[in-house]
Amino acid sequence: MEIPSSSLFSLSIVLLFFFVLATSADVHENFVQCLTSHSQNATSISQVIYTPNNSSYTSVLDFSIRNLRFLTPETPKPVVIITPSHESHIQVAITCARNHGLQIRIRSGGHDFEGLSYVSHVPFFILDLINLRTVSVDVESSTAWVQAGATIGELYYSIAEKSKTLAFPAGICPTVGVGGHISGGGYGMILRKFGLAADNVIDARIIDVNGAILDRESMGEDLFWAIRGGAGGSFGVVIAWKIQLVPVPSIVTVFNISRTLEQNATMLLHRWQYIADKIDNDLVIITDITRVNSSEEGNKTVQVSFISLFLGRVDELFPLMQKNFPELGLVKEDCREMSWIESTLYIAGFSSATSLDVLLDRTPDPRTSFKAKLDYVNEPISEIGLEGIWKRLNEEEGAAARIITIPYGGKMSEIPESETPFPHRAGNIYHIAYFVGTLEGVEFSNRYVHWIRRLYSYMAPYVSKSPREAYANYRDLDLGQNNDKGNTSYAQASIWGVKYFKNNFKRLVHVKTMVDPSNFFRHEQSIPAVSTWGKKRGN
């Protein structure tokens, strides 16, 4: 009896499916056995291992997923999740992953814009650092050790517990993990005064591909340079940073003034470009641009919010604004004085009644599905150019969009491009970040991705060129990515690498090749290891 070819095909698919399941099961069982057999305390490590058969697996996986685009039934899942509570757990995990051919994904706060800290298309496990989040502040030396699993909010809270006049120049969003944030540079509201988070790191502890725990002295200056802005997931597992805290006054001043197109927002934003990077280094004025309902019923307009932090009192701020940006029309009643730690809540959008305890909440509310991109602006964009942005915000998808500009200058222009891997220094007026996203429960369709790509294409004449610069912490796989098998050439990786790191990319590849020649630590945009200069040139 002849069996129909269609039946044979269906049978082969079923057999392949069960083979894949069996292989996957074997991998995770062998990996878990390796973890327990190599651990000095099998009971201890077994308590931080989650397999798909574990009832807590899904909740542990989902807890730190910040972009809901990567929380779907189709999204690849890890064979195992490990939430180490001790450095030795990480050492064992690296050893066993190398032995069993598993890729490692390192998650601190879960804010990777492309989900690379918890998604892979090859067999992988997640090393979730959520249990390693101790912050130890030394007021006398103005330093702190912060473990990589801590969030920015937890760091800020711990500093404020010890001092009202010490701060750290990290980000605005309190749920972002310190490990990834500092690894890519890390900007915030006091960058014009003190630079980036990575600029204020003075030591670190990292576990390398061989499982060795290294500090600044033992890792050497090349690796120490690379991990302060070369982005996460390429060189090892950073487990803690020693940071230099910075002095701030006991009272700072904030304001948030919104203007619509009907209130001359275009002119104001155009003018802002000429002063934002040149005013007093104690003053930062960022802008937040969204589409809103117009005062005319049924119509839409664009709103530009000018949000500021000044390291001083309102009586000092007011004359600065009158001299440099009188067009904004700031009056003293627009300003509020508060402590620096209170300003972190204000800038993050919390109400004045919110307790500082919210900084300890690792769960953002609400979660969104989103796509983001970022550019650097070297010359002011004309009013006509800005109006082209408004046109795109008025498209249907623009209702779900937000554009944020962050001014540079000050300390950012004083630090040489090669001081750390983060190269976007002198010559940049500001960066402009584009977001489009939908709230949890609302479908995020491809039309939103197409919309932000069209906006990005429109912006090309107005932003940096050769290369069109990008920020490694605003991961964007549209710029290019490595091969799944890790055999990416220097030439291929340069397509995205030079955008993120400019001339520093070459040194990053050199460091990577020295410390991880087998390219164990890798992902879609990790720094590649190359064995020869021939390969490096793409020959």
Overall description:
It is a single chain. The chain has about 550 residues and is of the alpha+beta class. It is about 35% helix and about 20% strand. The chain has helices at about 5-40, 40-45, 55-65, 85-100, 150-160, 180-185, 190-195, 215-220, 220-225, 265-275, 315-325, 340-345, 385-395, 410-415, 445-460, 490-500, 505-515, 535, and strands at about 50, 80, 105, 125-130, 135-140, 145, 165, 200-205, 215, 235-245, 245, 250-260, 285-295, 300-310, 335-340, 370-375, 400-405, 430-440. The strands form four sheets. It has a seven-stranded antiparallel β-sheet with strand order 15-12-14-13-17-18-16. It has a five-stranded antiparallel β-sheet with strand order 5-6-10-8-9. β5 (about 135-140) and β6 form a beta hairpin. The longest helix has about 35 residues, at about 5-40. It is globular. The chain starts with a helix and ends with a helix. Mean pLDDT is about 95; it is low at about 10-20 and about 530-539.
Fold blueprint:
Layout: H1 5-38, H2 42-46, E1 49-50, H3 57-63, E2 80-82, H4 87-100, E3 103-107, E4 124-128, E5 135-138, E6 143-147, H5 152-162, E7 166-167, H6 178-184, H7 191-194, E8 201-207, E9 213-214, H8 216-219, H9 221-227, E10 237-244, E11 246-247, E12 252-260, H10 265-275, E13 283-293, E14 300-310, H11 314-324, E15 335-338, H12 340-347, E16 368-377, H13 383-393, E17 401-407, H14 411-414, E18 430-439, H15 446-459, H16 490-501, H17 504-515, H18 533-536
Parallel strand pairs: 2-4, 3-4
Antiparallel strand pairs: 1-2, 5-6, 6-10, 7-11, 8-9, 8-10, 12-14, 12-15, 13-14, 13-17, 16-18, 17-18
Helix pairs in contact: 1-4, 13-15
